Every structure is written in structure tokens, then in C-alpha cells.
Amino acid sequence: MATAQEVQQIKQDLIASIKEEGLDPNMLIQLGDMAEAVLKDKSLYPQFLQAVVQNGLAEDQDFSSEIDYQLIGFFVATREIVKEMMASGKLGA
Amino acid sequence: MGLSLKKFGSWVKSNIKSIATVAAIVYPPLIPSIGTSLGFSGAAATVAGAAALSGAASAVAGDKPADILKNAAIGGVTAGVTEAVSGSGLFGGAADSGVIPAGTSAGGTAPVEFSPQQLSELSGQVASQGLIPSVLSSISKFTGLSTDTLGKLGVAGVQALLSSAGASQIAKQGKEAAQTQADAQIRAAQIAADATKFRPVGVTTRFGQSAFTTDAQGNVTGAGYTATPEIVGYQNRLSALAEKGLTQAEQAQAAYAPLQAGAQSLFGLGQNYLGSNLGQPLTDMSKTYMASQAGQPLTSMGQTYMNSQVGQPLTSMGQTYMNSQVGQPLTNLGQSYINSQAGQPLTSMGQAYMASQAGQPLTSMGQAYMASQAGQPLITLGSNYLKQTPEQVAADYIAKQQALLAPTQENQLALLQNKLQQQGRTGLSVAQGGNLRATTPEMQAYYNALAQSNLQLSANANAAGQQQAQFGAGLLSQGLGLTQGQQLAGAGLYGQGAALTQNQQLAGAGLYGQGVGLTQGQQLAGANLYSQGTNLTQGQQLAGANLYSQGTNLTQGQQLAGANLYSQGTNLTQAQQLAGANLYGQGINLTQQGQQFGGGLMSQGAGLLNAYYTGQTGAYAPFTTAMDTTIGLENLAQQPMTLGTQIGAKTTASAAQAGGLLSKGITDAAKIMYPSNAFSASGNVLSGLSNSPGVASGLNSLFGIKTYTFNPTTSQLVPV
Asked: Which of A40, B49, B315, B597 has the fewest CB within 10 Å, making it most exposed?
């Protein structure tokens, strides 16, 4: 279990990475929504991967046909962190 | 999982697992959602979700839920949890039926159901063969325990394990061991939770003093502060000012009401303009123009003309004429005449005659006669006769006559002498007067006769000399005449032969000239024919070229005319479409202008409305200023409580770390106790629990135990 400090550090690193790469926060929120949608309907997983690839975050060969729940968790967590940072003004829309 | 995020870089790749773990914190519904996605419900969904999120569980589509949980248990992530949930029916009754429950060990394998007969056989193998690898492997498959663990149990332990009574005992002991270790974990968690309790510190400043209250267990039950009298005095005075300001604000609405009415009027007018489409007629008209194909007939006609091949017949005919070889027969005939050698026989014959030597025999014979010396013997003979003088001829004549007469005379002398001797008178001589000598008469007579003969001979010798010269001259003359006659005849023959040859050669020259003339005549005629044929062909080809040019010009003329028509049509269409576009632009502009006008009215209305609200907001300024100042004073008074909280947070973090270390010590102790419970499936489970931080969270969740952590960002305790 991560400590609060570790969680905070991860948030800061993630936001720094997003800013450094110039990623669109809304795009990350949308991918997080799609990741959560996969949990309700597994058949959406290919579309979710396609969206990740189309946004330039990964390439087709990076994925297998199996549902990667860490990947799902990553994008859901990113969505939540981005939302939180946008609400606090630390990350622009 | 093979993720290679291009833009996030290596940091994301190396931290994705921890970020995924954070997901459960920043978004608690995630784990049960994943578990539900995997086909679980309730507590099992939480366990399976945590396993999948941690990456320890297989999430291949189509996996059975039990397999997912088993795999999670094998990975040690959810060890212990499966034991707990097995009683809920997922693997219900497994231990009683001789199957060790799933998730029995860290590093073990899922159990396999064996029949009683197989169990008996396994027990027999243990007794007879001991714990050899193959037997241990079979028992490991049956029990789910690792071979190392089985080896530690020994033969007796394994046999006991294999017996049904032993299995039951193992299950029971396993449960007890699980409970013991779970209790230890719970205790550790409680210690850790106690250590993380928030312990604020009392702080006093010149503006106020903090005031925290706690219960008997040390839990914070209340937090507050006390402002200094100075601050309270300021706040009271500001409160009076705020009262007045609020009254002014309440009266402002009525004062600014006209602005609101004006704004509403402008809004209504502006909305009418905004909804207008003044340029619609123009845009509608423009669409017609923009869709216009007015020039289409011209372009079509132009295309037809551009494709015209009207001059094709002429060009075809011209090509045919250009390929014409009409004069070819004449040129061929001319070539054959040019190559003619018709006079060749005559020239050959003439050459033969010119080379003739027909008179050669006559000239040869003539040359032979001309060289003749037929009279030479006569000439030689005559010359020989002419070589002696008459005296020599006379002398030769006398000598020869005397020689002829000598024998006879000598014979007569001898006879006379013989006669005188016989007559004895040989010595007798008779004088004869003068200077003649005395001799006998006979002798005298004799000599007289001899002298007389010589005289006669001498006379005859002169005549003989003359006759010989005449004879020689006659012979010479005859010889010369003979030679001259033959040479003259040869010259005549030579002349005849030469004339004959000359005549024949002249005749040959005549023939040769005739042959040459004949050949030249034919060749000249051939050249004339060749020239006529060539001219005829050239004439036709030139005529063909003329026709071809006329056809090409005709086609080009029509195609150019077509291009011109096409261009005119295109320009016409474009002009209409451009006019349409212009109309469209005008219509759009007109609409936009109307809407902009409406927008301007709306903006003016908004300005009035803004002024309405600004005025009212401004009316609040005295009140808000007083209130803001009061809040600032309150914050000053609140600082002691904030500082106390922050200091307490730092103290709590240190205590939490100490508690965590103590919890770890207890957990490690449980692990040390593990070997004594190794044969117990539940013991293995608890041991596995100590290997994963995630397990503690799962267990706590299942057992209803909550842990908290302090969030320095929000200064709040949040459930973990």
C-alpha cells in the first residue's frame, strides 16, 4: 500500500510528465472514461486500445489481446489525478 | 504487459504498476469494478479486482473465476483471502471432501482431486519408496503444497496428510493457524492504525490560541481556537460597518431596476436580429448561380469540335499519295536501260577486228622475200670470175693448157730422143744459122713445133681472159637481178598484208563505234525513263503532302474553334458561378451584419445588465470589505489551530512509521512461525499474506478493518 507521500509524489511526477510532453488533459480524461467503460463492457477493449494508439501514447504492437487491468487502472488513475489537478488549477484545460 | 507509451517515456513504463495501484486510492470504485468485470461479486470482486490490478492474476478473457482467484493466490497477492472466501461457496466443502482448498501456498500449486484409491496408492508409495521426487510431485499435485514443504513434513507427516483423518486435522490446524496469523496481522494493523492517529499540538499566538479535544482513547474529537480580545474588538466594530453596508446593498436593487428593464428590451431586439437571416434571398439566388452550368452547351460543342477529325479523309488521302510509287515502273525500266549493254556485241566484234592481224602472213612472206639473197651464188660466182685480171686469166689459161700439153710433149720428146739414140745420132748437131744453136733436124723440128704451140696458146690465153671476165660479169648481173626481183616481190606481199590488216582493223573500229553508240543510246533512253518515273512519283507525293497539310489544317482549325468554344463555355459558367459566389458572400455578409447588429444590441443589453449587477455588486462593497477584514482577523486567530494541526501531522507521520515498523515486526514473526504450520494450508496462506502489502489491504477490507493516512495536501485523514 502506497503511503500518502508516495501517492503525492506519483501525482506530481505524472503531472510533470503530462506537462513536459504537452499532452491534452481532456484527452487523458476521455481515455480514462473509456478505460472505465471497458470494465462494464469488455468488447470495448479494442476500441480503447485503438484510442490510446491514435492519441500517440502507444503502438499496436505494445498490446496483446488480453485485457490489461494495470493499463485500465493506469488510465483511470490518470483521469482522476488530471481532474483533481485541473480543479485545483495546477493543470490547464 | 508490454506497454510502451511513446510520449510518457520511460518514467511511465517503470511506474505504471505503482500508478495502477494508486488508482485504487484516487478512485476506490475501480477495484470492485474490475472484479465485477471479471465475473465476481461482493468480497470476491474486491479480491479479484485487486489481484488483476496488481498484475498477479491472469485476466485472459474466458478464464474461469476460480482460476483467476487460484492464480492470484499462487502469486501471493491474495493469499489468505481465498481461504476466507472459500467458505462463502466458491470452493465450499473442499477440505471435507479430501481436496485442499485453493490458494493453499505461496509458491504451491492448485490442488487436484484424487480418488480414495489414488490416495491409498500414494500413501503406499510414500511408505515403500520414501519422499522421492516423483512421489513428492504427485503429492504436491494432490495437496497443492510445494515439494519443499512436503519434504519438511517428512514421511510420517505426509502419510498423515494423505489420510482422511490427517486431512481433516490439517484443515482444522490450518484454520487455527490462519486465525492465529490473521490475529497477528490484525494486531499489527491495529498497532499501525493506532500509531497513525492524529495528535495535534497546542499553539498560542498574539492573535489566538488553539483548542483540541480528545476522547479516552486519544482520538481527536474536536478542534477549535480562541481569538484574543483585541481581535474580537476589531471584529465587533467591523460588524457595525457591515450592518450599514448590507442595508445599502439591499436598497441597490431598486435603484438599478431601470437598467435591467433597458437591458431586457435590448435583449429582445437583439434576439430578433440574431435570429434574422437578411441575406437569405441573396444566398438562395447565389446557389442557383453557383450551380449554373450556363456554359455547358458551349463547352460540349467545344469538346465535340476539339474531338473533330474532319480533315482525316484528306490526311488519309494525302498519306496514300505520299506513299505513292506510281513512277516506279518507269524508273525500273529506266534503270534497266541505264544498265543496258546492247552495243556490246558490236563493240566486241569491233575490238576483235581492231585486234586483227589478217595481213600478217603476207607481210611476213613479204618480209621474207624482202630479205631474200637468192642471187647471191651467182653474184659470188660472178664476183669470183671478176676477181682475176685478164693477164691472170691468160696466164692461168696458158699454164693450164701447158699442163694439159706437157705430158704429150714430154712423151714426144722422149720418143724423139729415143729414136735419135737408136739411130746413133744422139751427139750429131747441125748449125742453124744466126744465134740458134746447132741441133739435129728432128730436134729442131720439135722445138719449132713447141714454140709454135706456145704462141698459139698465148693467143688463145688472151681470148680466154676476156671471155672469163665477161662470163663473171654476166653471172654477177644475173645474181643481182635475181635478188632484187625477190625483194621487190616481198615488198609487194608485205604491202598487201599490211593493207589487209589495216582494212580489218578499220572495219573493227567502225563496229566498236557502232556498239558504243548503241549502248549509249539505250542508257540515255533509260535515264530519260528513270527521270520521268521519278518525276511522276514526286509529283504524286507532293500532291499527297499538300492534301495531308490541307486535312491537318482543317482538323486543327475545327479543334481550335472547339477549344475557343470550350473556353467561352467555361468562362461563362465560371462567371455565373463567381457571380453566385459573390451573391452568396453578399448574402452571408448581410446576414452577419444583421446578426452582428443583433449581437451589438445584445452586447449593449448585457452592458446595461452588467451595469445593473455591477452597481448592485458595488453596493455590496462596504459590506464585503468589512466582512473580508473580519475574515482576515479570524484567520489570524485561527493560525494557532492550523499550526497545531500541521505540527501534529508531522508528529503523527513519525509515529505512523514507528507503528509500521512494529507491524512489520509482528508480520515477520508470523512468517517465522510459518514452518511449524507448513503442513497447514491456511498457514501457507497467512505466510503468503506477509509477502504482499496488497494482501493486508484485502484482509482489512474483508474483516472490516479500516486504516487511515494523513493527506498533507488536504490536511485530512483519509481511509487507505
From this structure: A40
Nearest CA to B105 among B492, B627, B685? B685
H or E element: which one contains B437?
Answer: none
Of the residues A70, A72, A85, the best mutation for testing chain B's interface (the one with the most B CB atoms within 10 Å of its CB) is A70
DSSP class per residue in B196-244: TS------B-SSEEEEEEE-TTS-EEEEEEEE-HHHHHHHHHHHHHHHH
Size (chain A), residues: 93
Between B431 and B687, name the one with better pLDDT.
Answer: B431
Contact B12 A59 (CB under 8 A): no
B314 in Cβ contact with B550 (< 8 Å): yes
Separation of alpha carbons B638 and B3, rounded Å:
49
Give the minimum alpha-carbon distance from B715 to chain A in angstroms, rounded to a whole number. 11
pLDDT score of B246: 86
The more confidently predicted of residues B82 and B409 is: B409
A vs B: CB pairs below 8 A = 134
Name which of A4, A5, A80 is nearest B27 (Cβ-Cβ): A80
> pLDDT tens digits for B579-606?
888 888 888 888 888 888 888 888 888 7
Yes or no: say if B176 and B647 are a contact pair by the CB < 8 Å rule.
no
> Which of B27, B52, B694 faces A76 most closely, judged by CB atoms?
B27
Terminal CA-CA length for chain B: 27
Whether residue B22 and residue A64 make contact (CB cut-off 8 A), yes or no, is no
DSSP A57: S
Q: Percent of chain B scored above 90 by pLDDT?
A: 20
B218: left (phi over 0), alpha (psi -120 to 50) or beta: left
**Dihedral, CA atoms, B378, B382, B387, B388, nearest 10 degrees?**
140
* Pick from A62, A78, A80: CB nearest B3: A62
B110 φ, ψ to 5°? -65, 145
Q: Which of B4, B20, B710 comes nearest A70 by C-beta?
A: B20
Residue owning grid cell 434576439: B271
Sign of CA dihedral B274, B280, B283, B284: positive
- Burial bucket for residue B31 (CB in 10 Å: 0-12, 13-18, 19+): buried
Q: B3: helix, coil or strand?
A: coil
pLDDT surpassing 80 at residue B168: no
Distance from CA of A39 to the nearest CA of B (A): 5
Chain B contact set for A80 (CB, 8 A)? 23, 26-27
Distance in angstroms (rounded) separating the CA atoms of residues B364 and B257: 170
What residue spans define the domains of chain A?
23-87
B1 contact residues in A (CB cutoff 8 A): 64, 68, 70-71
Selection from B58-62, B245-249, B322-326 with the highest mean pLDDT: B322-326
- B60-64, B131-135, B457-461, B569-573: lowest mean pLDDT where? B60-64
Phi/psi for B225 (5° steps) reads -155, 165
Predicted confidence (pLDDT) at residue B4 exceeds the cutoff of 60? no
Contacts of B4 in chain A (CB under 8 A): 58-59, 62
Residue B677 is placed in which grid cell? 504450520
